[in-house]
Each structure stands twice: as C-alpha cells, then as structure tokens.
Amino acid sequence: MSKAVTRTNFLVDLAKVRELRRVLNLRSNSEAVRHVIDERLAVETGLNALRRLRKLGGPEDVFGRISAKKKCALCLLACFCSTLVFTSGLVGKNAICG
User: What global pTM score does this model have?
Assistant: First the structure.
C-alpha cells in the first residue's frame, strides 16, 4: 500500500465531512476522509479474514479445552459478525455468515 497522496475531487456532503472531522478531532476535511478510508479498508481486511475462517469451518478446539460457556462465546462472535455484515451494508456473496 502506497503512502503517496494525490489531489482528487469528490462530490461529498460537506456538512457530514465537517461533522466527521469534529467527531474524530482531526485538523482537516482531507485528513477526515483519509482516516475513514483507512478505517474502512481495515474493516474489509478483518471481514475477509472472517470469511476465510468460515470457509475453513471456523475455529477448532484441537485440545478439547473450550468449555460450554466459551463455545457460547463463539456463537456470540458469529452473531456479532452477522450484525457487522448488516451494518456495513454487505449482502449476498459478500456476507461473512450464511
């Protein structure tokens, strides 16, 4: 990934960018947009890792040490992933679960 910054033009809602800048406590609108792009790319990387893990059958307790309580936590993780997919706008083939 390159650190080169190039000037480009986008049509955006300036009020939303200013609000984002205020919420994130950043110095400029450009910095706010770059921050959100970096954050979204990080989310996509995590979602792709979860998708790959799901294709492999999920995490496996090879030592048989996971209690029923912890197994339930894995179910909660799957539920969280589903919520993340819903809130991120991913649908169909891009979904992690199901």
Answer: 0.58
